[in-house]
Design brief:
There is one protein chain. The protein has a three-stranded mixed beta sheet, with no helix packed on it. A two-stranded antiparallel sheet has the order 1-2. It has 144 residues and is α+β, with helices and mostly antiparallel strands. It folds into two domains: 83 residues, Arc Repressor Mutant, subunit A, CATH 1.10.10; 60 residues, Dna Ligase, domain 1 (2-Layer Sandwich), CATH 3.30.1490. 39% of the residues lie in helices and 19% in strands. Bound molecules: zinc ion (ZN) (2 copies). The site of one zinc ion has 6 residues, from loops.
Length: 144
């Protein structure tokens, strides 16, 4: 919990119990959940929590750079407790989202533009995860 508190303080967020709970959930779960998923998971242990609080907390944490909001899912904003530069993969079959490591430098040089400083990286891959690809292959076999 100390690590979570420090992370919030580092980003200029006052560490209330509910903010810490949301931050901890995002750090512990690499599933890139939606606001509703977070609410449903936390509500049983924090009955005073409201959906509005979760939404407001996620907005605050995103604004302060303590978490990332990712737009890989067209229907719902997804949230990521890992703010280090990495790419994301989303399976079109089951909707699972995985982290993909990428190499990024703090600056890149582009011909004709010059040096650019990178703060955030949003790279999305879409396709089929192993399980969905295998299920698909089985279906195809069954058909022929
Ligand atoms: Zn899948
Ligand atoms: Zn991620």
């Amino acid at each position: 919990m100390e690590r979570i508190k420090q992370h919030l303080l580092d980003h200029d967020v006052k560490p209330s119990l509910q903010r810490m709970a949301v931050m901890k959930y995002l750090m512990d779960n690499k599933t890139h959940p939606t606001a509703d998923m977070i609410f449903n998971e936390l509500f049983p242990s924090i009955p005073t929590l409201s959906k509005t609080t979760v939404y407001n907390t996620l907005k605050l944490l995103t604004d302060k750079g303590a978490i990332l909001m990712i737009g890989i899912d067209e229907k719902n904003a997804r949230f990521d407790g890992d703010t280090s530069p990495h790419a994301h993969f989303r399976c079109k079959g089951c909707g699972c989202i995985y982290d993909i490591p990428i190499d990024v430098n703090n600056t890149i040089f582009v011909d004709g533009i010059g040096e650019l400083t990178i703060d955030e990286v949003h790279v999305y891959y879409k396709g089929s995860c192993k399980e969905c690809a295998e299920a698909h292959a089985e279906n195809d076999q069954a058909k022929s």
